[in-house]
Design a protein that fits this description.
It is globular and about 55 Å long. The chain has a five-stranded mixed sheet. Strands 7-6-8-9-10 form a five-stranded mixed sheet. The chain starts with 6 loop residues before the first helix and ends with a helix. Helix 3 packs across helix 6. The protein has 280 residues and is an alpha/beta fold.
Amino acid sequence: MKRALILATLLVLPLYLWATPITRKQDIDDFLKTTTYVVLDDNAMTEWNFKIQEAVEKFWTITPYKFITRKEFDTLKNDMDKSFLVRLQFRWPKDKIKATYNFMSLVLGAAVDKPIDMPEICSIPLGYESANQMSWGYKLAGFLRFIQAHVRRLQENPSLISSDPLDFYNKNIREIGDHEIWVVRTDLAPDIRSLEQLRKNYSGVIRVVKPEDIEKAINEKNEHVIYLHKVGPESSNLQARVYKVLLGAGDDNIYYFDYHMMSRSNGDGLLKKDLKRMSR
């Protein structure tokens, strides 16, 4: 996979984690001709297995699909006529922050030894390796729809493949005020978890909800809702980056993307400065 090639850019422009800009037009064309094999965990009881099967059966329309095991993936991954939706772990080899991420990756089959070297269409960071799958499982349907929407945007406008994805998606920040922002309390920095602080720092409508509320909004394609996906170290003491993304529950668009280094003054979650930036 091309992640190692974009490490230097990641430190400046982490949206590349979401929609790898060095995907080629040929990769998109090849992908659309494949059957996508959705790789399940060996442990049948994982959140990934439950939620990804539900999401694919309900929302995956861009290619035919089949569910396979990890063992079958090891056998089939070298077939160039196949694509795979798989959960992979990755650590940036030269990053000073020794963090391992869980990714939801859409990749093409290729004659390579390691899954992380397979041609990548799009990858979404689900969370740090230490994060409980429950912290991102309820959003998998939204991520799945975003991946398809992103591929279709690249297909319809190939010039986006070589462009800066921030230029394309960050223009949507001006439309945040037309929606309600839904967040889970633990995805907010500790100093803005009160209703008073939220109203003080954000001029629009922001609601603190339960994970199942966001899942329901995604499943119902609620056009009024934008939801927060936060990738942070959770309860660990890891000195790490905190990524913050707002996605549309109805239109599968990105409305906001930023990150910060976690510190005593900048906690593991959405910050005051994020709210103020969205209010402009």
